[in-house]
Design a protein that fits this description.
Layout (H helix, E strand, L loop, with lengths): L1 H11 L2 H14 L4 H14 L3 H11 L12 E7 L3 E4 L4 E4 L4 H11 L3 E7 L12 H11 L7 E4 L5 H14 L7 E6 L3 H10 L4 E6 L17 H23 L3
Parallel strand pairs: 1-4, 1-6, 4-5, 6-7
Antiparallel strand pairs: 2-3
């Protein structure tokens, strides 16, 4: 029941679904067909507008932490969701969100942090043994990252559990009272900050793959872009997740 409901909600929060529903309805509701089509195309324009998206991203995402402003911390925490495991080729497969991992490795290699926590369990229904932090740390070892510098949190399956399980790990290492660099995608950072601070951790946000536009308005700001529509889908799902966490008292 919950699975089916989540799928329905996922469909309904996507702007592409709203546009599709309006245009399909215009063929059946003859009296309002013109208005429905105008509304559909207006919505298509709004949700493909880089200018509007830039404003939303600049409001939602925390500011980008400039290189010269990055403080040195004992630990940095990279949240999972940046990779999967290809059981055919028997190797890690990076995907949307992989900048989280790359930025975490960069922070470690440039000595901005002394230890890197990779937080993430299994997202597989059929392969619960494939835990993201485990195979990601194995990849790090294979490319020459010292394993003594990496801490693995492999129990969590969502952002709230990331925070809970990471706190346990940091407490075991005597680092729970120290500020940590929190590394996740820009669109996901507000929920991540709220979850980690809810657990009493001191976090400094380090946004990966940020969509903030700090360069101002240009010609491209007024040209419809289909990639903007795709990012709206990501944002809407994130806002739904944040609202759900707020309703359940997780943030």
């Amino acid at each position: 029941m919950f699975f089916a409901l989540s799928k329905i909600l996922s469909f309904l929060v996507m702007p592409i679904s709203w546009i599709f529903i309006l245009l399909v309805a215009s063929f059946f509701w003859k009296k309002q067909s013109k208005r429905l089509r105008i509304a559909g195309f207006a919505m298509l324009f709004i949700f493909t507008s880089p200018l509007i998206m830039d404003g939303v991203n600049n409001f939602w995402e925390p500011p980008i932490l400039l290189t010269e402003d990055i403080p040195e911390c004992e630990a940095g925490v990279v949240l999972g969701g940046f990779s999967s495991y290809d059981t055919i080729s028997n190797r890690i497969a990076f995907r949307f969100g992989s900048d989280r991992f790359n930025q975490g490795i960069w922070l470690l290699q440039t000595r901005k942090i002394d230890r890197l926590v990779i937080s993430g369990g299994s997202g597989f229904l059929l392969h619960p043994e494939l835990r993201e932090s485990v195979y990601a740390s194995k990849y790090a070892d294979e490319i020459g990252i010292p394993m003594r510098k990496i801490l693995i949190e492999s129990e969590s399956r969502n952002t709230r559990e990331n925070a809970i399980e990471t706190k346990k790990l940091l407490e075991a290492e005597g680092l729970a009272d120290e500020p940590i660099l929190l590394v996740t995608s820009g669109y996901h950072m507000p929920r991540a900050i709220a979850c980690f601070e809810k657990q009493g951790l001191k976090v400094i946000p380090y946004c990966a793959e940020s969509y903030r536009n700090e360069s101002g308005i240009g010609v491209e700001s007024f040209i419809p872009n289909p990639l903007v529509l795709a990012h709206w889908n990501v944002l809407m799902h994130e806002w739904l997740g944040y609202a759900s966490y707020w309703a359940m008292g997780y943030v």
